[in-house]
Amino acid sequence: MGAFRIALEAIFNRIHPKALEYTSFGKPSPSVFKNAETILSQLVSSLHHHLEAGNHGDAGSHPFKTLYMIGDNPSVDINGARQAGHPWFSILTRTGVFKGKENHAKFPADLVVDTVEEAVDFLLTKECSS
């Protein structure tokens, strides 16, 4: 998003007399996480509606107990999940931006793992045993 905005702004400002005005939305804004939660809820409702329409039994209502944010950037991914609060659970990976041995001091995650695979294994184990 950053590189695209910079390129767009540079082109726009070169050909227009007035500078480009913009509002940027993205992580770590809690609104991004709430929007994701809303879209996921709509998707689940739609899937349940299709199941009920196909006479596959009662799909029921399944509000999210937990939503997982897996990321490698504490100041963006983990901070955003922490700001959004429940039902978000943050998992920090050592696969990119973050390389620390311990949890990040300023933006600590709920869990720190070495790889995305470990994060997925954790959540599958947790969700399949509940």
TrEMBL record:
<dbReference type="InterPro" id="IPR023214">
    <property type="entry name" value="HAD_sf"/>
</dbReference>
<dbReference type="InterPro" id="IPR050324">
    <property type="entry name" value="CDP-alcohol_PTase-I"/>
</dbReference>
<dbReference type="GO" id="GO:0046474">
    <property type="term" value="P:glycerophospholipid biosynthetic process"/>
</dbReference>
<dbReference type="InterPro" id="IPR036412">
    <property type="entry name" value="HAD-like_sf"/>
</dbReference>
<dbReference type="Pfam" id="PF13242">
    <property type="entry name" value="Hydrolase_like"/>
</dbReference>
<protein>
    <recommendedName>
        <fullName>Hydrolase family protein / HAD-superfamily protein</fullName>
    </recommendedName>
</protein>
<dbReference type="GO" id="GO:0005739">
    <property type="term" value="C:mitochondrion"/>
</dbReference>
